[in-house]
Amino acid sequence: MALVVTLLGGESTGKTSLARALCGHLMARGLTTELVSEHLRHWCEQQGRAPHSHEQAAVAREQARLTDEMASLHGVDIVVADTSPLVIAAYSELYFKDHSLWHEALAWQRCVDLTLLMGLDLAWVADGFFRDSPAVRDAVDAAIRRELQAAGLAFQTIHGHGQTRTEQALRAIGRCLGQDLTTTEPSLTSGRRAWSCDKCSDPACEHRLFSGLLARNHTGDARP
Q1: Which residues belong to any copy of the NadR/Ttd14 AAA domain (predicted)?
Q2: Please, which of 87, 136, 148, 182 could form a disulfide with 132 given CB 3.0 to 4.6 Å?
Q3: Edge-to-edge strands of the sheet including 220-222?
Q4: CA 8 to CA 5: how far, in whole Å?
Q5: Structural domain of 87
Q6: What is the pLDDT of residues 28-54, one digit of tens each?
């Protein structure tokens, strides 16, 4: 089975851009890497709307199925999944007050090798169709953090812009593989004391912290 890396986060948190960047870097290192795109977006594009409450579970299961199928292919070293059922469970709770998808989504996430949660330091950008507001993004982030921490599932928060964000993710993947995958010298990755937001579920707090410290290239590992 391939190493499975999932990227979590609400809308406009850079999941897709990071997923594509990671695939490019990993392939350049000689690792056969496959990208699993966000099924929810594909579904919305096909249907011209967001899923209704009774359609959410099927969308979540298809995201999991596509990722599992790719990971089982012979010769694939790494699978980078642009979201997971947890994101759909968060949307289901937010829009429909439906908490029923969390259990199955968390059970699937528990089998994932590496969970990367996108930080809230990127500016929210409207896309004219799918994205609602920064408030929705923050609410999804808070719900995902809450459930990951309550379930005792380890995750790492990824911050920064462009190459900085990619390097953080590459270091996390490299730790799983026991090799250095970064393209630049690591910064502030050893000897750190945990910062106060490591276990914080308040997205506004994290946003304020990283808005002020982004230029110093701080990184954060979240361990529930």
Answers
A1: 5-165
A2: 136
A3: 33-36, 78-81, 3-8, 114-118, 155-158, 220-222
A4: 10
A5: 3-222
A6: 999 999 999 999 989 988 998 889 999
pLDDT in tens, 54-67: 999 999 999 999 99
Phi, psi (deg, nearest 5) at residue 113:
-75, -40
> Are 106 and 56 within 8 A, CB to CB?
no
Q: What is the dihedral of CA 141, 125, 36, 146, to 10 degrees?
A: 0
pLDDT grade, residue 223 (50/70/90)?
very low
Please give the DSSP secondary-structure letter assigned to residue 179: S
Phi/psi of residue 223, nearest 5 degrees: -125, 110
Q: Hey, what are 42's tokens?
A: 């594909």
Number of domains the chain is built from: 1
pLDDT in tens, 130-162: 777 889 899 999 999 999 999 999 999 999 988
* CATH number of the domain within which 7 lies: 3.40.50.300
